[in-house]
Amino acid sequence: MKDEQPRLGELSDALARARSEVARVIVGQDEAIDLAMVALVCEGHVLFEGVPGIGKTLLARSLSRTLSLGFSRIQFTPDLLPADVLGTTIISQSGEGLDLRFEAGPVFSNIVLADEINRASPKTQSALLEAMQERSVTLRGESRPLPRPFMVLATQNPIEMEGTYPLPEAQIDRFLFKVLVGQPNREELCEILDRTLGQELPEAGPVLGPTELPALQAAARDIVVPEVVRDRAARAVLATQPGRPEAPESVRKWVRYGAGPRGAQALVMAAKARALMDGRPNASLEDLERCLLPALRHRVALNYEGLSEGLNSDRLIEEAWASLAGAVRR
Amino acid sequence: MRTEARKAVGRARRSLNAISVLSGGLLWLAPTAVAAGLLLLVLEATGRMPPGAPVLALWGMASALAFCGGALVALRRRVDDRAAAAWLDERLGTKELLSAALGLSRPGRLAGRFDGEVAERAEAVAAAPAAHHPGWPLGTLLRRALPAAVACIALPAILAWADPAALGRAFRAGGSEGSGDRLEIAARQRSSARPEGAAALASGADAAAVARFLFAEDPAKSDAAEHALREGRAEEFRNLLERAVKDLDSRLSRGVNDEERERLLEEKRRLEEALSAMDESTWSGGSSSGSSQERSYSRGGREGAEGGVARQAPGEADSAADSSSRSPPRRSSGQGEAAQAEGGSGKGGSQREAPGDGDGRGGKGPAPGTGPGSSPGGDVAPGDKDPSGGNGSPGGQGPGSEGPDRGGNGSDGGGEGFGSGPAGGGSRPGDAGDAGAASGVGQARDRGKLSPQASGGILTVAPDRAASFFDYVLKGRDPGAALPGLFAQAARAAEAPIANQGLPLEYEDFLRSYFLALEHQLQENGAGQESLPAIKGAP
User: Fold this and answer.
1) CA neighbours closer than 13 Å in the CB half-sphere of residue B125
2) Poorest-confidence range of A63-67, B270-274, B350-354, B492-496?
């Protein structure tokens, strides 16, 4: 059976092609595209944070097109209800009379874009909790599985925070990555102008078939993780916890709580996916380091002192990682 | 994990461990070799090392033990295959491929889809030449080896070739200068014109300095001598000197090499000079009059200085003994017991009074408060205006005060005492009560005798070897030279450490008082005031 499975080179080539197709539409944002691909391979969810108009929605749409996956978009607003997301049971007229019928919500799709997720009420936000973790939805006592692969790409705007509901820790922990999407630079902006103001808008075409993504996801889980990589990931996660001896002084001083087991899982899984994308059979410390910030930044919460100092979790995670690297070298 | 990759990892582990052990040993060796070498050097230099001790062997043993200790610690922290594989991965840039390959054989691990690919790739990496020569971290080893090598070469050379005696002297000199005891140095400078041994005794240097000087090569004897000096046991001190001379004779008779002989002869010469100096009473403060030829340093001297009640000589009006002094209670070499401790209120002081003021009040002398209190006052002939007759030394009415001149003068009461004021009262007949009442604690210094032989406006000083008061000024100079000029030089020299605040307060007071007294005497003897520099702070 194993001989029938695609070889490592073929898998990485497929991923490279998909990535190129997305990059043909999205100008710049290489890191965001890479991380979205990694999350897709890991079957993880991604929270994009960035100002409006920088291609977050286009990225999600292009991904779904490239991978031949279903796509739905939910614009989160304060009056959005859970039923608007999950679906509802309606009375319908059938030939034999009235009947109760479940009308699936937009969450029943492969790639769900939850736009400005922090504008919905906590009740609506939490409607996604089960969907994201269990990949199923329970309504009226009946559990309905979501289509596979299932991926939530959520966005939130770092400005205009009035009237928003910050995501609770339980929900934010369910995102594999939190990706900061920055503004394009001058060259990228010029390229965007050239591409979007002509007669034809570029659109991503399908590169992978519906069966290929699950194969990629399975292959990623088979990537070998050396002990040194696994240990470093565990130590990195522990180093973000202020009560741990591995934590550097800055973490002890400014962090309220650090990453947990989901963080370690995300880190190692992302390293595996990175290795797969690079066509390597094993994960490396470099893979780990490249995924460190997106995988942990939303799992490390600063205390009041840290917030008042104007710090962000990225800096503290980097310090924790550097302290581990120093300890290893010593 | 296949053969080549495992071999490569094993090779890396062994090499890393060897480097780590060597490096650890050298890391411990370098500081230990330096510290042990310096310690042995100091022990050798100070004479605390037993004769014939195998210094180099001791040093080598300490260094070897340190190396072994460091190596042992490094051995306990030796790297395993996993760490070696990680190091090799980092070195070769293989992105943890060898580590992954090593992990494939981990017990309990389930076989994965890419295991074969990992092993295959690892094998290829291990077979490459780069895996055989990954660039061992020899830089670390060299960095650690360099100071160790320097220590290993330099210290035996120093230990083997350095002259312990010279080192010892250098060590002591450095130590004493470092301690700031500048008086000791000054004392040596002052006494440079004399034979060393005698100069050491007469210099007024403290007991420790004298003892160290005389027994430079023998700390035990030096300590004993210091104690004897401090406690006034002159006989014991003399015995120490005599025994030391005998010892030296014995060692010289046993036959030694030329260098050693020269050193021993030098030491013997010092000791003999010290003995002769004691015999000449230049230091013991033998009183000039009366029956007190006691040469011993006596506790009684100090006791007399502290406890006595000033007994006024006949004719003294009232000898104010209320002066005080901050003179340090140093070696009391006065006559002590002979002085009967009657006088001396124990308050020697820097007091001065115009001599011959008639009322006999407090001849304020710059009583230094220490020293042998030979009082030439008893020798003063009636009618002499003897500035040094400032007895005023309630610090012990020595026999000198009861001497034959006493009745005639009626003022030279202070036969000997402590802190006798040099500018005490004149002793002219009829100057009743010129008694210098400067009473003192501690060293009663012989102020010497200034014989006014002024002629043609030039003041000369009688060459009185028994007088040490002017030693500082006259040392090594023609006794017939003009005193004011000499005084000016000496005062300037003395002022330097005062200005630099390099002297303890008590010495500062002493120096000021001393020069004030000299100045006073010079004025009294007609020297030009303009030629006398003032000591800062002097009234």
Assistant:
1) 27
2) B350-354
Q: Can you read off the two tokens belonging to residue B435?
A: 């008694």
Instruction: Write out the two tokens for A17.
Output: 């092609």
Residues of A in contact with B103 (CB under 8 A): 224, 226-227
Read off the pLDDT band of A294 (50, 70, 90): very high
Interface residue of B88, B89, B96, B105 to substitute, partner A, most A CBs within 10 Å = B96
Query: pLDDT, tens digit, for every residue of B238-277?
Result: 788 888 888 888 777 776 777 777 877 877 777 777 777 6
**Assigned token pair, B410:** 């009626």
Task: Tally A–B CB contacts below 8 A.
Answer: 58
Burial of B133 (0-12, 13-18, 19+ CB in 10 A): exposed
Distance CA B165, CA B167 (A): 5
Residue carrying structure tokens 């195998």: B54
A219, A222, A284 member nearest B95 (Cβ): A284
The C-alpha of A206 sits at a distance from chain B's nearest C-alpha, in angstroms, of 28
Nearest CB to A280; choose among B89, B95, B102: B95
Please state whether beta strands A87-94 and A97-104 pair in parallel, antiparallel, or not at all (unpaired): antiparallel
In whole angstroms, give the CA distance from residue A311 to residue A302.
Answer: 8
* B142-189 pLDDT, tens digit each: 777 777 777 777 776 776 666 555 555 555 554 444 333 433 444 444
Cα dihedral A273, A278, A283, A288, rounded to 10, equals -70
Chain B within 8 Å of A284 (Cβ-Cβ)?
Answer: yes
Q: Which of A282, A284, A329, A330 to mutate to test the interface with B (most CBs of B within 10 A)?
A: A282
Contacts of B113 in chain A (CB under 8 A): 2, 5, 219, 222
For residue A48, what are the β-bridge partners? A155, A179
Question: Which residues lie below 8 Å from residue B374, measured CB to CB, with a gap of 6+?
Answer: B281, B285, B286, B287, B288, B416, B446, B466
Please report the pLDDT score of residue A265 as a whole number.
Answer: 92
CB B363 within 8 A of CB B390: yes
Nearest CA in chain B to A5: B113
- Partner-chain contact B100 A2, CB within 8 Å: no
Which tokens in the block code for residue A162? 């009035």
Residue B77: closest C-alpha in chain A: A330
Residues B354 and B365: their CA atoms lie apart, in Å, by 10
How far apart, in whole angstroms, are the C-alpha atoms of residue B518 and residue B538?
13
Angstroms from A216 CA to nearest CA on chain B: 13
How confident is the model over A105-146, as pLDDT tens digits? 888 988 898 888 888 888 888 888 778 888 888 887 888 888
Please give the pLDDT value at position B23. 83
Q: What pLDDT is recorded for position B526? A: 62
The phi, psi pair for A179, rounded to 5°, reads -105, 125
Ranges of H-type helices in B254-287:
258-279
